[in-house]
Amino acid sequence: MKRLILSLTLIISIALTRADEGMWIPLLLEQLNEKEMQDLGFKLTAEDIYSINHSSMKDGIVIFGRGCTAEIVSDQGLILTNHHCGYGAIQRHSSLEQDYLTDGFWAMSREEELPNPGLTVTFLVRMEDVTEKMLEGITADMTEAERSDKLKENKDTIEAEAIEGTHYQARVKPFYYGNEFYIFITETYKDVRLVGAPPSNIGKFGGDTDNWMWPRHTGDFSVFRIYADSNNQPAKYSENNIPFTPKYHFPINIQGVEEDDFTFVFGYPGSTQQYIPACRIEHISEVVNPIRINFRHQRLDIIKSYIDRDDLVRLQYASKSAGIANGWKKWIGENKGIERTKVIAEKQAEEKAFTQWAEADSDRKKQFGGIIDAFNQLYAEISPLEEEMVLMSESAFGVEILRYARSFSSLVRLCENKEIPDEEITEGIDKLKKAAISNFKNYHQALDRKIFIAMISAYITHADPAYRPAELEIIDKKFDGNVSDYADYVFENSIMASEASVNEFLDNFKRKKYKKILQDPAYTLATAFADKYNKDMWPILNKYYAEDDSLQRIYMKGLMEFLPEKRFYPDANFTLRVTYGKVKGYQPRDAVTYKHYTTLEGIMEKENPDIYDYVVEDKLKDLYESKDYGRYADKDGSMHVCFTATNHTSGGNSGSPLLNDKGELLGINFDRCWEGTMSDIVYDPAQCRNISIDIRYCLFIIDKYAGAGHLVEEMTIIE
Ligand code: ARG
Ligand code: GLU
Q1: Would you kindly state where each structural domain of the chain is located, as residue ranges?
Q2: Is 220 among the residues known to form the active site?
């Protein structure tokens, strides 16, 4: 018994949430965090951050596009986000002749601001706890399926009621694995224009080499503006739209950042898994991550070999390769962090103590007994299947021609159905024509053929034959097992391999011709993979996931009872969160200490005109030589570029404001340090750091480098 008590105290002390850890719900700050935040230095109140009674900081935060955050910095709808968040938009306006990605872009007047069809920003109007309403009619004796049907029904009603008679959107989202539910009422603006972007040599300085790393010197920001109709309401792009007048915009503090200053980040972290069992972490680090890392490594090597010798390919594949590399590098860091923190052993010990606690009481035993065993059993079944699915998605679905070929299935479906009128088919063709333009704008066939060979070979080597699509047998039967010959056959015979053949096919399309798609070698292979994945594997995995969800829900409830002292925060789910901490450096390894900030000196140290990632623009060098930093210089006279802090952030927090004790903007969050990327699973206060661009460097680039001081004039600057 004494032993049990001892180990429990140990576990509890390990498990208690540390001050810097946690992504907190704005609605609950007052109750859960306000006091601690103030003790750490916060000078305002929770009500200043989130209020439904008056304007508050939440009215200055938006979801930018589909996966980033941005903040409003002027009373004329000007917003800041990351360069890598605006990247797609900047790329879409770029060509070899007019290359904004490389050279940067600055609108010197409102007329020059560039529209971006499809790009939206979304405000949170309000959120509410709807747990009780969601659980109405849910009983303990329901099966999981009955429970989930009832939840769906309740969700639909609650969402519909919440937005009746408004132009808002509503979404109920589960928290703590479905132990609680919150509704989010949102408002989306659809006219968002590009205002400014630094050249990639600044906005992506260090490229994928420095990505996820400290010390960092990336000017990762871009500037956009929200437009609205004459009533300040959301409207589609129109020349008549005017700059949006926000309820709130963030003042910008250029007094500088000191170590140990209180900071908080307000934004949209995407997804974390803080409460998964040890066996799931084991599965991620030993099965899932190694496949992803290995396959992406191969794809990246191939892309790099083409990018290095062809500038057009560089432009075409810049965004694609950044996306592939970003995950690749993060998972490498995540695996190292999982190993270093020994989180698996730590969780196993916690699970053991949890089981003992559950077994010690008959009521608890009924609810939570055996849950860890159930997880272990379930993962023994999930793991091999998920492995096959990850293999497939990282290999076959990484081949561009196969992904593209799938888009023709919509036309097949239309043609197969005799009831569909010809007009609809014409519409379908028009859509495919448009899609062809954007697909081939950024497509290099020789490169994709190499990836095809590498990925299909890797798939065949690693995949369990039981899951392999039968279509692949053709390689042995017709091509003597030679994947390269098979690739030649696919690329030479597929309509989808070139823009010319796609256009020729679509221009002369007649209903009956859809059979040609069904015989197309790229289409048949893509469909074979997709069918295996979607029809054979996904339904089984989905059933397992439903079981996993219900185990997680019960386990989460149990954990909260088991550790009553602990302040739990819900896993990130791309809803608005506050995370707070301090400006801090760290010690990545023995004998090495990192300062919390970098300067322009470091950019000059890294400069290398022969390495793409480390080219420094002449203009920036001139400013550096003349130390012409104006009011953006630090007290020490240097130009600070980036800094680190202990805020617990995740993917989706890109572009989030990093704020000081008075809610003034000090920086824009854009990354995490490599040693801390396991913080989606386990947070280590010694190693987990978020990285922000110092707002003074951002303004210096806008004002001194780009000569767009009129934008700074719009902002509220605190000197
Ligand atoms: N690692 C950052 C984030 O997850 C930045 C990614 C963009 N930058 C890059 N070099 N790929 O999204
Ligand atoms: N770069 C990430 C993003 O795009 C933020 C870094 C992180 O994962 O914390 O959201």
Answers
A1: 18-120+190-265+569-718, 278-555
A2: yes
Nearest to 597 by CA among 632, 553, 640: 640
Longest CA–CA span in the chain (Å) reads: 82
Catalytic residue among 383, 654, 656, 679: 654
The answer to whether the CB of 172 falls within 8 A of the CB of 158 is yes
pLDDT of 17 strictly over 80: no
Structure tokens given for 260: 């140990």
Q: Is 84 a catalytic residue?
A: yes
Among candidate residues 208, 220, 261, 671, the one labeled active-site is: 220
DSSP state of 572: P
Q: Which ligand is nearest to the CA of 322?
A: 1
| pTM given for the model | 0.93
- Pairwise CA distance, residues 396 & 391, whole Å: 8
pLDDT more than 70, % of the chain: 98
Spot the catalytic one: 84, 217, 444, 596.
84
The pick from 334, 644, 650, 673 for probing ligand 2's pocket by mutation, whose C-beta has the most ligand atoms within 8 angstroms, reads: 650
The pLDDT assigned to 94 comes to 85
Peptide bond into 564 cis (omega under 30): no
What fold characterizes domain 18-120+190-265+569-718?
Thrombin, subunit H (2.40.10)
pLDDT at 15: 54
Question: What digits encode the pLDDT tens for the residues 199-258?
Answer: 999 999 999 999 999 999 999 999 999 999 999 999 999 999 999 999 999 999 999 999
Burial class of residue 36, CB neighbours in 10 A (0-12, 13-18, 19+): middle
* pLDDT on residue 2: 44
